[in-house]
Amino acid sequence: MDDRVPPEVRRTATEIDTMEIRGAATIADAAARALRTQATESDAADAEAFRAELRAAARALYETRPTAVSLPNALRYVLRGMSSTTVEGLRQNVVESADEFCARLERAQADLGEIGANRLRDGDTIMTHCHSTDALACVEAAVEQGKHVEAVVKETRPRNQGHITAKRLDELGVPVTLIVDSAARRYLNDVDHVLVGADAVAADGSVVNKIGTSGLAVNARDRGTPIMVAAQTLKLHPGTMTGHTVDIEMRDTAEVVDDETLAELGNPTVKNPAFDVTPPRYVDAIVTERGQFPPESIVILMRELFGEGTSEPWAE
Ligand code: RUB
Fold it and tell me: What are the pLDDT digits (tens) for 257-306?
């Protein structure tokens, strides 16, 4: 990591890398706050040095995990706010844009929740995969509307983010049935919706989310269960409009099997992809704070929000 990156930013970067901070929206929020801290604590001698420090911090955060596009979208939002020619002015710019970013994220999630809740009827059961704050915002809003919702929660190996979902749903008063991932098809007949989040949504409407989402979606389509993706516009991937593909993170194999067991098994090759891509034809609706969209038309919203493309200010 660059020497100019201060300890607070390093700590956030490490926590994102080790998944103490995880989930696309939470990562974006933490990254914006880290840039804010960098700005308030910087003792840069001039505006150019200040900008260089912020770029180095953004780069350190950017290099933690490659898949959730909310991370570069957050960094871009905050860095683009820097317009002043003085250190004090730039500091103010970063603080304001980071605060604005975090407030917008929270508002977007609440608005998305209201929209998503309209798809859930009183008495419905959902099936979840991983832990998504955007997806849970829909359930929370439905519960606030007085609807009774139940949930079948997939544990989501290898990191068991389903446990976080189960706990959060319990706090909302939603009865939970926890299942192993391979039992999903068995229970799809019992649910009214599959409800998942997204780390990135591509211009063609493909949804990048926790590994196992695509298999779940294919099974759900086979059973006729609608698949709803809750993804605020922060998850839209502007680079995919100009042909970039989304990088799928491969994580440490120790998450899957420990070294001792691995040796006992004769040291097989282990693969641990963290995400997969669900083609648009398996997704019924992408729910954003700007409304819900069939996946094929999400590109219209992307053009409206990002124009035809975007650059990476930390690489300038
Ligand atoms: C998290 C994951 C979540 C999305 C959406 O993966 O795949 O479904 O990030 O989450 P990981 P949110 O645990 O590997 O970070 O809706 O909270 O942004």
Answer: 999 999 999 999 999 999 999 999 999 999 999 999 999 999 999 999 98
Q: Is there a contact between 126 and 152 (Cβ–Cβ < 8 Å)?
A: yes
- Give the structural domain span for 71: 7-111
- Contact assessment for residue 138 and residue 195, using Cβ atoms and an 8 Å cutoff: yes
CA-closest candidate to residue 236, choices 84, 96, 70: 70
In a domain, 316, yes or no: no
Mutate to test the pocket of ligand 1, among 130, 181, 247, 288 (most ligand atoms within 8 A of CB): 130
Lining ligand 1 with CB less than 6 A are 22-26, 68, 130, 132-135, 161, 197-199, 209-210, 274
CA 135 to ligand 1: nearest atom: 16
Q: Which long-range contacts (CB under 8 A, 24 or more apart) does 3-6 make?
A: 4/52, 4/53, 4/56, 4/57, 5/56, 5/57, 5/60, 6/37, 6/38, 6/41, 6/57
219's tokens: 């099974």
Residue 219 lies in a domain: yes
- Say what the pLDDT of residue 307 is: 81
**pLDDT tens digits, 190-206:** 999 999 999 999 999 99
Number of domain units in the chain: 2
Q: What is the pLDDT of residue 177?
A: 98
Q: What is the CATH number of the domain that holds 95?
A: 1.20.120.420
